[in-house]
Design brief:
- By secondary structure, the protein is an alpha+beta fold.
- Helices cover 55% and strands 20% of the residues.
- It has helices at residues 2-15, 19-59, 69-72, 87-93, 127-133, 157-163, 198-201, 209-216, 234-244, 247-250, 262-300, 302-310, 315-351, 373-399, 403-407, and strands spanning 62-65, 98-113, 116-125, 138-142, 152-156, 170-176, 182-194, 204-208, 223-228, 253-256, 353-355, 365-367.
- The strands form 2 sheets. The protein has a 6-stranded mixed β-barrel, surrounded by 4 helices.
- It starts with a helix and ends with a helix.
Length: 411
């Protein structure tokens, strides 16, 4: 251990011989790490925002449905209803770690106002629970649904624009009820909302689930959306629920949020490839820069290396000495990079990154940089490993010098 500390002190002294060159190398490493932290942190924030948006607005963490609902339910959705009062539903709600369970009933039909009639896609919801579950939904005019039995609806902004209605107007909803008959109800427009999907806003509305059941003349819901306290525990609870409520016994299927999040999954796959390319580019820049600097060190210290070999120092020790110098550069540069990168990420997140509206949205958003422990460790390891690799060739070159030729540089 004492010899190792001595080697580190010697390597540090050697690096301080040419302070300008060593400082340049440290700056290159630190800038590479900072770039990695900021770029990957922004991508990680996009992943997090998309994930939470999908969970908070569309699916919850786990959806409980009838088996084959997603594959066959489009043709006959009313054949896949869950019961209104169920012991399983109450058990799920009382499970530690579960924040809430929200039933939803899907309705399709026609909505009319005056002479205008358009198709709609509706969801019957429990307003009190949706206040916590649907944080991705923003009311831009009027107010949200006021109660479980209120005869009112909220419309997507595009749908409201097509109908020419606003808060306070009355609309008529027409749908095919259970048994094949046609049923209609009237409701007051309570508010106008926007979501993260403009196409959805152009045809969507929400109404209390009691009104949706009345319109379809049914009881129950198509899905129970389970909202957990911690997204990272999704797979744990999924396995727990599947074991506790077997599909063949309870006729229930538990589906995680990511199973039908195609856009999210494809976005993560695409951006992950881009992140890997970024890591490769930064790693190559560090390797080439540090390798060039260490080779210059070897050339300037050729005579010194010859002297060390002449007095009996083993070539393995020479290799270790120069490799240690590269490792120290990576260690110091990596630590400085993650410290500065984290500070910059926090500062930028506090200010916010104004972003234009993405495809399918009418409004922009404010981005942030999400720095996790895994990201910092990854950036530090890349800096350390690449500098260590960069030092191997110069170290090997120094250790393989011929003693006689090396000593000539002292003349």
């Amino acid at each position: 251990m004492r010899d190792q500390f001595a080697d580190l002190r010697i390597a540090l002294r050697n690096l301080t011989r040419n302070r300008r060159r060593s400082l340049t190398a440290l700056v290159i490493i630190a800038v590479g790490v900072i770039s990695m932290v900021l770029a990957e942190g922004f991508i990680q924030w996009i992943f997090w925002a998309m994930r939470e948006g999908t969970i908070q607005f569309q699916s919850g963490h786990i959806q409980v449905v009838r088996p084959d609902y997603f594959s066959k339910g489009v043709a006959n959705p009313l054949a896949y209803l869950l019961p209104k009062d169920s012991a399983v539903l109450k058990t799920l709600e009382s499970t530690p770690g579960v924040k809430l369970v929200a039933p939803r009933l899907k309705v399709t039909g026609l909505i009319s106002h005056g002479e205008t009639t358009v198709a709609f896609l509706a969801e019957g919801v429990v307003p009190a629970k949706e206040a916590e579950l649907s944080k991705g939904l923003s009311i831009v005019k009027g107010h949200n649904l006021s109660g479980p039995n209120a005869s009112e609806v909220i419309l997507g902004r595009g749908l409201a624009r097509n109908l020419g209605v606003g808060p306070g107007d009355t609309v008529a909803l027409l749908a095919t009820a259970s048994g094949g008959g046609i049923n209609a109800i009237e409701a007051r427009v309570a508010g106008i909302f926007t979501s993260t999907n403009q196409a959805y806003d152009n045809s969507a509305l929400r109404l209390p689930i009691a009104q949706a059941q009345s319109l379809l003349r049914v009881q129950g819901a198509h899905a129970w959306l389970v909202l957990l306290k911690d997204t990272e525990q999704t797979d744990h609870f999924l396995e727990q629920f599947r074991t506790r409520f077997p599909e063949n016994t309870n006729h229930l299927e538990f589906v995680p949020w990511y199973a039908h999040a195609d856009f999210y999954n494809k976005t993560v796959a695409l951006f992950s490839q881009q992140i890997n390319v970024l890591r490769l580019i930064i790693g190559l820049i560090i390797v080439l820069s540090i390798s060039n600097m260490l080779i210059m060190n070897v050339m300037e210290r050729t005579g010194e290396v010859g002297t060390l070999l002449a007095i009996g120092l083993k070539r393995k020790k020479i290799l270790q000495m120069f490799a240690t110098e590269g490792f120290l550069l990576g260690l110091v540069g990596g630590l400085a990079g993650i410290a500065l990168g984290y500070a910059l990420a926090e500062l930028i997140s506090a200010i916010g990154i104004p972003m234009p509206p993405p495809p399918g949205m009418e409004e922009g958003y404010t981005g942030e940089i999400r720095v996790t422990a895994g990201l910092l460790i990854s950036a530090f390891l890349i800096a350390s490993i690449t500098t260590l690799l960069a030092g191997l060739y110069p170290a090997w070159k120094a250790s393989r010098q011929q003693i006689v030729n090396a000593l000539r540089h002292n003349i």
